[in-house]
Amino acid sequence: PQHVVLYPLVSKSLRNIAAGKDPLEGQRHCCSIAQLHEHYSLGYPDLDELQKNPQPLIFDIEVLKVEAPGSYQQDPWAMTDEEKLQAVPLIHKEGNELYRQGKVQEAATKYYDAIACLKNLQMKEQPGSPDWIELDQKITPLLLNYCQCKLQCEEYYEVLDHCSSILNKYEDNIKAYFKRGKAHAAVWNVAEAQADFAKVLALDPSLRPVVSKELRSLEARLREKEAEDKIRFKGIFSQ
């Protein structure tokens, strides 16, 4: 039967969902060679066998739990465009609450989901068009929140990439300069950190106390590093 022949592809999508992947991974944007490979191998031996030799299937379904109407939140990939727009403020709020509770990784995941919803919608718009720009302006604060989480998780190079991406489009974004400055300082890019903090002051002089604190912290770390290097090198040359 036709539905049995198609089942291996359906099963692969379900397995992708269970693994947290895009259900259509490997089924789009493929060249002819990739599609040919996809036809003969789905990446799972049991599904490959079923595809080669279709046979009647019996499904045994077990109900694990029942959720009240409205309590289930769909994954972004399963939402309609309208559902994505409606979900973003709610996901953003959940991320903020998790961050306040100190659950930084979980908050980052929420911000990422909200960004994914908006990015999906943005891909359907002409770059630079009013609708594209409106979506991008919604993405930017979420991305800055995501970067704040990544700073606390010490994933500094990801912060550098995202903040630079923001500043390539919005040259006066103070938060992006500040977060990028902190990331530069953390990975010992001293000149770059000082330049970013100087830009923060140029855009908003009232932030001088905050910037001065960051610069003092960087200078203190540099002095500690120099002292450690002297001890280390002294030990090498004295041998």
Give Rg in angstroms: 25 Å
Low-confidence stretches: 28-38
Shape: elongated
Mean pLDDT: 85
How helix-rich are the residues, as a percent range?
55-70%
User: N- to C-terminal separation?
Assistant: 79 Å
> At the first level of CATH, what is the class of the domain at 80-153?
Mainly Alpha
* Second CATH tier, the architecture of the domain at 80-153: Alpha Horseshoe
Instruction: Name the CATH superfamily assignment of the domain at 80-153.
Output: Tetratricopeptide repeat domain
Question: How many beta strands in the DSSP annotation?
Answer: 0
Q: Structural class from helices and strands?
A: mainly alpha
Report on the biggest sheet. none
Q: How many H/I helices?
A: 10
Helix and strand run: HHHHHHHHHH
CATH topology of the domain at 80-153: Serine Threonine Protein Phosphatase 5, Tetratricopeptide repeat
Query: Strand fraction band?
Result: under 5%
What this model shows, in words?
With 239 residues, this protein is an all-alpha fold. It contains ten helices and no strands. The longest helix is centred in the C-terminal third of the chain and has 30 residues.
Give a short overview.
The protein is an all-alpha fold. Among the domains are: 6-52, no CATH class; 80-153, Serine Threonine Protein Phosphatase 5, Tetratricopeptide repeat.
Give structural attributes:
peptidyl-prolyl cis-trans isomerase activity; elongated; mainly alpha; PPIase_dom_sf; AH receptor-interacting protein; 239 residues; single chain; Serine Threonine Protein Phosphatase 5, Tetratricopeptide repeat
